[in-house]
Amino acid sequence: MPKVSDAHLTARRRQILDAAGRCFARDGFHRTSMQDIVHESGISAGLVYRYFAGKDEMIIAIVNQWHERRQALIEAGQHATGDANESRDLVAEAYLDLVRSIGQPQALEDLRLGVQVWAEAVRTPAIRELVRRGVDGPRTTAANLISRAQGNSAVPADLDPDALARILIAIYQGLVLQTVWDESVDNDALVATLEAILDMIIPS
Amino acid sequence: MPKVSDAHLTARRRQILDAAGRCFARDGFHRTSMQDIVHESGISAGLVYRYFAGKDEMIIAIVNQWHERRQALIEAGQHATGDANESRDLVAEAYLDLVRSIGQPQALEDLRLGVQVWAEAVRTPAIRELVRRGVDGPRTTAANLISRAQGNSAVPADLDPDALARILIAIYQGLVLQTVWDESVDNDALVATLEAILDMIIPS
DNA sequence: TCTAGGAAAGTGGACGTTCATTCATTAAAG
DNA sequence: CTTTAATGAATGAACGTCCACTTTCCTAGA
User: Fold this and answer.
1) Interface contact flag, A166 B158, Cβ < 8 Å
2) pLDDT in tens, B131-161
3) Is a pLDDT exceeding 50 seen at residue B1?
4) Residue A159 has what DSSP assignment?
5) Exposed, middle or buried: residue A175 (CB in 10 Å: 0-12, 13-18, 19+)?
6) DSSP codes, B144-199
7) Do A115 and B120 touch (CB under 8 A)?
């Protein structure tokens, strides 16, 4: 059948999604018009609707893509050992790497997009579910690790594993906000201090 | 001059602002139409423009109001001692009270609004300045307190005061996000765990 | 190897709707 | 009776989406 290659189709889809991502990061989901995305992508208006049913579907796709990237970032930090029973040091280092990545200039656009996703999750149930699922995995992993460490008496027993996991994630989220508002935040100092704190409450 | 009382004017202004706040918390700034606010407030469209030059000015007013409320919340937690040189326990308790307030059901709408403010700050320079200013005060206060505590050797010297202050604020911000996404988050466990952590890194 | 035909890729102006804002007008207060 | 508060239909711009149309590419028949 006369079609174009599959590679071309996925490339076009990515072309649109990348443009949409840039627009959404810059202006938010609802201050970005379809025309904006059309201009940014260099593609005609009509064609966009061959790849996405509408703006809402594009937003969902962007949110999915964002969480996939986040997941990849977390897994990359674990140095690809493939070990399901991660050690404390491995997970802690992956966490610190994640916090370190906040300070990289090339990550800024991605972080800005993330903040828009977080705000949209407040309003749209489908996106809220995606965000929750994206956070659930890392949280459960961390909580299990902390729980195990408590068994070894390495972590004080009065710390609730799930609560502590939530707090660690909260630190990441809050630092993303502060960095996005003020690029001059000293990320190195944050990481060093966070490392010191981790050593105090979850010694290896 | 034939006018209505000043009290009436400020009441009307608040009537509009309250309605706008409810709409913005529910739908975000840019999915809320002026018609929505008009309906929610029970006031005619034209009258709104006697009190606010336009939608943008209303958003600014809402952001200001939000930070004033936050400031009041923080000061209320310090039990009105009026002491400029706050003690560690006083500030720590104010901080924990602030985190505790996240769990109060009647605060949810306010938190949802806050998340919208944070996202808008990414895009709009004027709002970003307001948000930064709102965070700067508490951060400086906390950093100074930590710095003083380090002088007394109560806090490890390898913790950067400003970084630690940022992390504490980040915890608040992240927990707001998580609570807004999932009301069933166990706030009591969070506060208890956070209290234990505070005792470890900033002993009194 | 060449070419006609069909199917999908791609275009961009048109469409109905919704938006923020205005203004001619009425109601009410002093 | 003058001044201001208050109304809400009107306005034009901008929005998301659609669709009639053109271009491009693959296949089939010679």
Assistant:
1) no
2) 999 999 999 999 999 999 898 878 888 899 9
3) no
4) S
5) buried
6) HHHHHHHHTTSS-TTS-HHHHHHHHHHHHHHHHHHHHH-TT--HHHHHHHHHHHHH
7) no
